[in-house]
């Protein structure tokens, strides 16, 4: 059965909720009243908490990379200059290039998702004063770079299925 393709606005909304849950200070304790978007299948609902938990698990595995400290330093300098979105994108690109040979069998979109989420969580933990700026940068990055791909998969809740194949 082909995945349900979502429109770009629905994916933007899902992305915003997923990133809010991902960067929530309670790490998983989130108000779930907003967490269901009906889809075509029975019992098939979008839950940003579940998606965020899966992304957090993926990201935790990458946080030991020493390049995170270098790109965090660059991001902190950029935050002072109010160019966080570009610095965040540059940091993710650097991390993707470093990991591309390790995961050549992984779709480029998943590499971007993994690197950006890992970097976003690393920044949140290492520089909590940048949390709000990074939340916006991560949401913008994912919407811009993988939003249409996520829509073609049927939404964020379907992306997790793709990563496990």
From TrEMBL:
InterPro entries per UniProt: Bcl-2-like_sf (IPR036834), Bcl2-like (IPR002475), BCL2L15 (IPR033543)
UniProt feature coiled coil, ranges: none
Sorted UniProt keywords: Apoptosis
Domain of life of the source: Eukaryota
Keyword Iron-sulfur: no
One GO term of the biological process aspect: regulation of apoptotic process
UniProt entry tagged with the keyword Endoplasmic reticulum: no
PANTHER family (alphabetical): BCL-2-LIKE PROTEIN 15 (PTHR36466:SF1)
Name this protein carries in UniProt: Bcl-2-like protein 15
